[in-house]
């Protein structure tokens, strides 16, 4: 019974020493090749998760466990990246809303200033250089250092009749 068991457990050629030696040599060659590939990957700086793909496994369960662990790590990285994307999108949305409200407020202020100028322009004397707003705009210069406009001084031009 033991002889039959030994033959059945190892297959037909369980006692074949040549076959065992051949398997041992193949495993040794595969291990050497794996080590060379790992060395090449480490020289290139590849991710350590790639090492699991080059590993020689003794059983399918061991391979399944190793690849399941790698899958869990990748899923965790994916969840972290998705969370980061959502955070950035919400931050971008808040900034966009803030910029739009600032633009609307500035447009209202600009409209107010334009309406005030139109009303006040009729009150300015005709012989003053401020009676022509287009001329004032042309003569105004932006000063980078002080970050403000240099506007010409108001001058009243007296006209003398002969």
From TrEMBL:
The gene is Kif17_0. Keywords: Coiled coil. Residues 57-91 form a coiled coil. This is KIF17 protein. Residues 1-27 are annotated as: Disordered.
